[in-house]
């Protein structure tokens, strides 16, 4: 039998480590390859992997199976010196007239906050936006996992109440529901090795 590899795509901020560890225990003869994918390219990337951890919404319901996994709370990232960091959590009202930096790889979409747009061109990445926020130039609103991914000593973040969450899901092509995909679904759903499907 030809050896095979399970290719799992993952957008930034998703944390599949626990599931990968379980996979290695249950499927020692099938290596798992983690494939980083950009949110902007997530739909196309699914064609190249066995399954992917993606951010919703993701279109193409006819071709895809999508299982919602968890929702992430959005946070406000600002300079560690910002007055916003004095609070334990923030509301939209707290952000009135703050400069909101929205990078081109933004995953939350329009937030309808009482903020103002920056006077510079959009930045390419969340990492660039957070580096700019570190200078005190503005704020960034991202899911908490992305704030942690790009954590710096010169920024802080606080939960933003009543803001849309970012939903992470497992997606794969309907026509490629293999035994390996079924095994991974069982792992993310918390099934034990002995439970039936």
Which helices and strands occur, and which strands form pairs?
Layout (H helix, E strand, L loop, with lengths): L5 E5 L6 H10 L5 E5 L5 H5 L4 E5 L8 E9 L1 E6 L46 H9 L5 E4 H6 L5 E5 L6 E8 L5 H10 L9
Parallel strand pairs: 1-2, 1-3
Antiparallel strand pairs: 3-8, 4-8, 5-6, 5-7
**Given the C-alpha coordinates, what overall shape results?**
elongated
| Strand arrangement across the biggest beta sheet | 2-1-3-8-4
Task: Supply Rg.
Answer: 19 Å
According to DSSP, the number of beta strands is: 8
Tell me roughly what share of residues is in helical segments. Answer: 10-25%
* Order of H and E elements: EHEHEEEHEHEEH
Q: What structural category characterises the helix and strand content?
A: alpha/beta
Beta fraction:
15-25%
The average pLDDT is 92
Distance between the termini: 25 Å
Any low-confidence stretches, pLDDT <50, length ≥5? none
Number of helices: 5
Most strands sheet: 5 strands, mixed
What does this structure look like?
With 197 residues, the chain is an alpha/beta fold. The protein is 20% helix and 24% strand. It has helices at residues 17-26, 42-46, 126-134, 144-149, 179-188; strands at residues 6-10, 32-36, 51-55, 64-72, 74-79, 140-143, 155-159, 166-173. The strands form two sheets. A five-stranded mixed β-sheet has the order 2-1-3-8-4. The chain has a three-stranded antiparallel β-sheet with strand order 6-5-7. Helix 1 links the parallel strand 1 (6-10) and strand 2 (32-36). It is elongated. The protein starts with 5 loop residues before the first strand and ends in a 9-residue tail after the last helix. The relative contact order is 0.23.
């Amino acid at each position: 039998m030809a050896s095979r590899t399970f290719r799992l795509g993952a957008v930034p901020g998703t944390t599949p480590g626990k599931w990968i560890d379980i996979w290695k225990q249950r499927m020692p003869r099938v290596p798992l390859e983690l494939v980083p994918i950009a949110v902007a390219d997530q739909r196309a990337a699914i064609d190249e992997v066995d399954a992917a951890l993606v951010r919703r919404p993701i279109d193409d319901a006819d071709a895809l199976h999508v299982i919602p996994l968890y929702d992430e709370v959005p946070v406000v990232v600002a300079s560690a010196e910002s007055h916003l960091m004095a609070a334990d959590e923030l509301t939209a009202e707290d952000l009135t007239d703050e400069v909101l930096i929205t990078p081109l790889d933004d995953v939350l979409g329009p937030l309808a906050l009482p903020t103002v747009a920056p006077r510079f061109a959009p930045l390419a990445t969340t990492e660039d936006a957070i580096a700019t926020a570190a200078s005190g130039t503005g704020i960034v609103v991202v899911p908490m996992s992305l704030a942690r991914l790009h954590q710096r000593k010169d920024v802080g973040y606080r939960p933003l109440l009543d803001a849309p969450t970012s939903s992470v899901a497992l997606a794969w092509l309907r026509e490629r529901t293999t035994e390996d995909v079924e095994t991974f679904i069982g792992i993310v759903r918390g099934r034990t090795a002995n439970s039936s499907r």
